[in-house]
Design goal:
The complex is a heterodimer of chains A (113) and B (111).
Chain A lengths: L4 E3 L2 E4 L5 E6 L6 E8 L3 E9 L14 E5 L5 E5 L8 E8 L7 E2 L3 E5 L1
Parallel strand pairs in A: 2-10
Antiparallel strand pairs in A: 1-3, 3-7, 4-5, 4-8, 6-7, 8-9, 8-10
Chain B lengths: L3 E3 L2 E5 L4 E7 L6 E7 L5 E8 L4 E4 L2 E6 L4 E6 L8 E7 L8 E2 L3 E6 L1
Parallel strand pairs in B: 2-11
Antiparallel strand pairs in B: 1-3, 3-8, 4-5, 4-9, 6-7, 7-8, 9-10, 9-11
């Protein structure tokens, strides 16, 4: 596709359930980022993938959060045993190797009841 | 870790200038960025400045960088109602290829 695609755009779940959020980056972009946007918190860095290198997971807030990137393309962010404080918009971005402009998807809005 | 701070809110009257400020604690010697997020949309790159510059002008936008004070600002001249959005500064920390974003400044332009 022409841009970064994220799904679902909206997800409502019950506390304690697991959720998966998907990101399809721009073709040819080897770098992929996940951020979380909460009210008043700005954009919180979660994880960064670059090609076949080990991902930078330093931003993941707890071990309930994990992400993988299969075949250097599509990425899935998984949140296990969701809590109400996980409610936020989860943004994915991709870029050419070694930085430069990040292209963002429109985000997945997660609401945990 | 990297800490990037911005004021949360700014209101200006249409036609006035807007100045959005950003302070950071660490930056590599590359580019620093300003992104814009319009209501209900994803972030888009607005402008950027290379770390060896102290000013960059791009039409109505002026970016100022003070590396000594670790301060970045974005000035929007002749602010229009269409400029109403959230503005994020973004800084790459030393030794890393990811980007840390500020808290975002919500700019409201009053007609």
């Amino acid at each position: 596709g022409a841009g970064v695609s994220q799904s679902p755009s909206n997800k409502v779940t019950e506390k304690g359930k697991d959720v998966e959020l998907r990101c399809d980056p721009i073709s040819g972009h080897t770098a992929l980022y996940w951020y979380r946007q909460s009210l008043g918190q700005g954009l919180e860095f979660l994880i960064y993938f670059q090609g076949n290198s080990a991902p930078d997971k330093s931003g993941l807030p707890s071990d309930r959060f994990s992400a993988e990137r299969t075949g250097g393309s599509v990425s899935t962010l998984t949140i296990q045993r969701t809590q109400q404080e996980d409610s936020a918009v989860y943004l994915c971005a991709s870029s050419h190797p070694y930085g430069g402009e990040l292209f963002f998807g429109e985000g997945s809005r997660l609401t945990v009841l | 870790g990297e800490d990037v701070e911005q004021s949360l809110f700014l209101s200006v009257r249409e036609g006035d200038s807007s100045v959005i400020n950003c302070t950071y604690t660490d930056s590599s010697s590359t580019y620093l960025y300003w992104y814009k997020q319009e209501p209900g949309a994803g972030l888009q790159l607005l402008t950027y400045i290379f770390s060896n510059m102290d000013m960059k002008q791009d039409q109505r936008l002026t970016v100022l960088l003070n590396k000594k004070d670790k301060h970045l600002s974005l000035r929007i001249a002749d602010t229009q109602t269409g400029d109403s959005a959230i503005y994020f500064c973004a800084v790459p920390p030393t030794g890393a290829n990811n980007l840390f974003f500020g808290t975002g400044t919500r700019l409201t332009v009053i007609p």
